Amino acid sequence: MEWVRGEPIGYGTFSTVSLATVSNTDSGEFPPFVAVKSADSYGAASLANEKSVLDKLGDDCNEIVRCYGADRTVENGEEMHNLLLEYASRGSLANNIKKLNGEGLPESTVRRHTGSVLRGLRHIHANGFAHCDLKLGNILLFGDGSVKIADFGLAKRTGDVTASNDDGLQIRGTPLYMAPESVNDNEYGSEADVWALGCAVVEMFSGKTAWSLKEGSNFMSLLMRIGVGDELPMIPEDLSEDGRDFLSKCFVKDPKKRWTAEMLLDHPFVAVDLDHGDLEYEEEEFAVQFKTEEVSTSPRCPFEFPDWVSVSSGSQTQFDSPEERVTSLLTDLIPEWSVTDNWVTVR
User: Fold this and answer.
1) What are the structural domains, with CATH classification, of the chain?
2) PANTHER family under this entry (predicted)?
């Protein structure tokens, strides 16, 4: 594929996503625009993992973003690793919901999007992978109203052990979406994706994160709430009975008793067909037009709120003592925990 890089449309800690124009579209094999995720050698491992996973998942699932290949370029004297991905003209669900000023989406829209994400998860899990960072920021909205799962930089084979040193804890993904077994036992499997889906459903419907954050909240207190005791994420009271029951199947502390994506696809909350006219109305009413000039930037350390993005899978942050580890987690600010892209090893 021949392509020309355009304006940046998003930044990660170690990668930049740009809109690119495809030069050779006569064959119809490629669309006129693609999203190019680029990183230098420091972020190359994450891009390589993402391409490997997407290649193994194939192109036969409409709910997973398509990969058109990868290449390398030399720009400003530096070698760049590029991943060529399907372009979502309406951005992520996270950005769209932020523009609704604290409001969520209509329940019928939430049901439709949830069903789409579940079909994507079913395909991912059936092929032996776990996404490990499912969140609204990694669910992309396309011009026809469809949604697709994106960003497989942290995806892993289910059953593969997430390495953790004796003196450290490895955090993979986004704290607000982490499952109890991930916090307690460093387990990141398909069950954790289902828990994260529940958190995403709450946020889609309410416009607020599933875990309420009080003044003075910090990283450690959030992990304690997730991993210790019986507290569960918030289930909106004004959600339908089907919706509340659906979330109760996602928010089960014991991963062995949590419903699978396959089981949830038969739940009444998503096992519905929307009238096509209603679908078009909702898309017109709630669509937020994508603007390339609105570029979200990520900080370069974990506690530059509100747009915190954690360190990529290719790097580690080390601390020499438990005191330094705990001290690094303290802050007087109220964090925005919903925007992290990768993981960090705390030692």
Assistant:
1) 3-86 (3.30.200.20), 91-161+168-271 (1.10.510.10)
2) CCR4-NOT TRANSCRIPTIONAL COMPLEX SUBUNIT CAF120-RELATED, MITOGEN-ACTIVATED PROTEIN KINASE KINASE KINASE 19-RELATED
